[in-house]
Amino acid sequence: MRIVLMGMPGVGKGTQAVRLRDALQVLHVSTGDILREAIQAGSPLGKRVREFLDSGSLVPDDLMAELITERLSRSDATRGFILDGFPRTAEQVSILDRVLETLTVKLDVVFLLSASEEEIVSRLSGRRICPGCGEVYHVDNRPSGSAGVCDQCGSALVQRPDDTRSVILDRLKVYKNQTLPVVEAYRERGLLQEIDGSGDPSTIFERLRTAVGQS
Fold this sequence. Notes:
14% strand; Rossmann fold
């Protein structure tokens, strides 16, 4: 299957994409991973990506199109893929259309994970990260054994700057302005399926797996 997975920041796209990847035995394509891989490989594309990131600029859509085309052209994408993080704007929908046309493949379904704004704010604002080993906790759903201290390495846990309530609300506003037109574009094509993204990850995955079986 060829799937686009969408949803608000913090709704759990990355977690569910990995579970779907393992269940379907297809490629998980995260735009963040593509960018990091290109830079680490030192390819001509990667050098162009680094120039933009080093200057603090967003990677332009035409360059993202090149990266995604190259990644989806590899043999491990022939069984299918899950796109996570692209497209995010109406312009990127058109770009993905051109990429898929070049590859002579079509999308099967676009899943939209949805949850209330209150739940998203609670999930992200309660997240705590260990700067030592990278372990992730949550003050309510997955607290550490000792408050504020990592169970694995003993480092003091921190809150990411973009996990504060004000920043989260700004991110959600950007999502609504930029990404909802993408949702409507795929809804009009009959490709969109909305999935309840509230609750624990296993429950959400069962909803997704049921929807995959019906697609």
